[in-house]
Design brief:
Largest sheet: none
Structural class: mainly alpha
Radius of gyration: 25 Å
Helix content: over 70%
Shape: elongated
Number of domains: 2
Number of strands: 0
Distance between the termini: 69 Å
């Protein structure tokens, strides 16, 4: 592709339209099943037994170093937050999803104490 065609707005629009048409002709790309499988595989990798063992050792090591006064507190807090986010992500998302659905169904219960 020449330099002139690369910066031509009409060429960019035609290329974008061609890409969108390609996505429309390939419905399996829009399938949520592919994204669900990818998400489940990623969650399975993050929650496997080996990584859980590494996280347990990291928490024990950070705790022992903190007790001995040989750790920087920002490192200790970073380890704890990382473990909570990685291994508690599914529970955190479920908690937020369940509470947002409850709040959307019964908004009067939130302000019931105000009369």
């Amino acid at each position: 592709m020449t330099q002139a065609l690369r910066h031509d707005p009409l060429t960019r629009h035609i290329l974008a339209l061609a890409v969108l048409c390609g996505f429309l002709l390939a419905p399996e790309l829009a399938s949520a099943n592919v994204l669900d499988n990818f998400g489940n595989a990623l969650l399975g990798i993050l929650n496997n037994t080996f990584l859980r063992a590494i996280a347990i050792v990291a928490v024990i090591a950070a705790g022992l170093l903190a007790l001995g006064g040989r750790i920087q507190w920002m490192a200790f807090i970073s380890v704890m937050i990382a473990v909570v986010i990685i291994f508690g992500s599914a529970g955190i998302v479920d908690y937020i999803r369940d509470n947002s659905a409850t709040a959307a169904l019964a908004p009067a219960a939130v302000v019931a104490g105000i009369a």
